[in-house]
Amino acid sequence: MSSTHIEQHFIDSATLLAQCQTVLAEPTAAAAQTLLSALMNDGKLLLCGNGFAAALADSLCAHLVLRLEQERMELAALSLCNNAAILTHLMQHLSTEQLFAKQIHALGKQHDVLLLISALGNEANLLAAVDAAHERSMAVIAFTGGVGGELAARLHDHDVLLNIPHTRPMRIWEAQTVLMHALCEHIDHLLLGTA
């Protein structure tokens, strides 16, 4: 049995990561500054995504509250993806389109930041979340792929788009995982001054 297709998997992933290095370094630094500015102004980070992106949002939340690799102060981050009572109530009684928007209306305030993770940027509940964040005068950071979808079109000038230049969700999620780690490590560098 040939392993060529397995080798190609790694080549394709490495090629995409090299592209991301070129196009995402500056926007990732801007996202880190946006997050730190919010945290220094008594704000917090609210995170959301669907499916595998929800798991990425939960992981990023854990890295910020706890740590990536280095010990540092806890950072105020909250995932909106995992409250079972809210999820099941919305599925029974309301539209799941409001899943994140309702939580943002309840928890969000000026100086907070919403960070969304999406493969292609077209999910109705994430679009509603962006609208809710803007109603609360919150900045938005969007991890997307492809061309950013409708999500990219809804962002304001002060928001940050971190778009993976690929259309295959598997590749986008791989790169978003690396992007998440790069963002956390840069935040640690800004806070701790480490290399």
How would you characterize this protein structure?
With 195 residues, this protein is of the alpha/beta class. The protein has seven helices and five strands; from the N terminus they run H-E-H-E-H-H-E-H-E-H-E-H. Strands 2-1-3-4-5 form a five-stranded parallel sheet, sandwiched between helices. Helix 1 (4-40) crosses helix 7. The chain is globular and about 50 Å long. The relative contact order is 0.18.
Layout of helices and strands:
Blueprint (H helix, E strand, L loop, with lengths): L3 H37 L4 E5 L2 H14 L11 E3 L4 H10 L5 H9 L5 E5 L6 H12 L3 E7 L3 H6 L5 E5 L4 H24 L3
Parallel strand pairs: 1-2, 1-3, 3-4, 4-5
Helix pairs in contact: 1-7, 2-7, 4-5
Outline of this structure?
With 195 residues, this protein is α/β, with parallel strands linked by helices.
Which oligomeric state applies? single chain
Strand percentage: 5-15%
The spatial strand order of the largest sheet comes to 2-1-3-4-5
Question: Helicity, in percent?
Answer: 55-70%
Strands, total number: 5
Taken in chain order, the helices and strands follow as HEHEHHEHEHEH
Shape: globular
Mean pLDDT: 92
Structural class by sheet pairing and helices: alpha/beta
Low-confidence stretches: none
The biggest sheet amounts to:
5 strands, parallel
Number of DSSP helices? 7
* Rg over C-alpha atoms, rounded to the nearest angstrom: 17 Å
**Terminal-residue CA separation:** 44 Å
